[in-house]
Design goal:
alpha/beta, 2,3-Dihydroxybiphenyl 1,2-Dioxygenase, domain 1, 3 helices, elongated
Length: 150
């Protein structure tokens, strides 16, 4: 079993796609739009007449699918990583890489940050923040990558 992709529902693809491309250097692999004639989407989502735009963005080790339901109204999630039922996606980076990424994140979207004080991840920098739609992201800058367990 492996993770195939992470799907993130966005309010406006024209805002979110460039944000992910610019902030994390992701590249768009493909984009599709499924409309009211694609009845399998109605069945899959259990929503009659749904229109979906999707962009698949390539990260170094997986895909992130940004999904815009163009007709569907919803309230973006603004919860915290500690709340039951919330979710987040973590991006890992090496020493010295987090500063450039975090410089692109507005203060209003930063949830929290720390340097791990002890344990196996001692010294790692960890940031929680929101994307333009309120989805929670984590960025971990590893001071060193751990050796695989023997």
């Amino acid at each position: 079993m492996k993770i195939g992709h992470t799907g993130i529902t966005v309010a406006d693809m024209t805002v979110s796609k460039p944000w992910y491309e610019d902030t994390f250097g992701l590249k768009t692999v493909f984009e599709i739009e499924r409309g009211v004639t694609d009845h399998f989407m109605d069945e899959l989502l259990n929503i009659k007449g749904v229109v979906v735009k999707m962009a698949a963005l390539q990260a170094e080790n997986g895909l992130i699918n940004l999904i815009e339901y163009t007709y569907h109204e919803y309230e973006p999630r603004r919860d915290t990583p500690a709340r039951q039922g919330s979710a987040h996606l973590c991006f890992d980076c090496g020493p010295g890489e987090s500063e450039a990424i975090m410089a692109k994140i507005p203060d209003k979207d930063l949830i929290g940050k720390c340097v791990v004080p002890d344990g196996k991840n001692v010294g790692n920098k960890v940031f929680y923040f929101r994307d333009p739609d309120g989805f929670i992201l984590e960025l971990t800058e590893y001071t060193r990558f751990l050796e695989p367990a023997q």
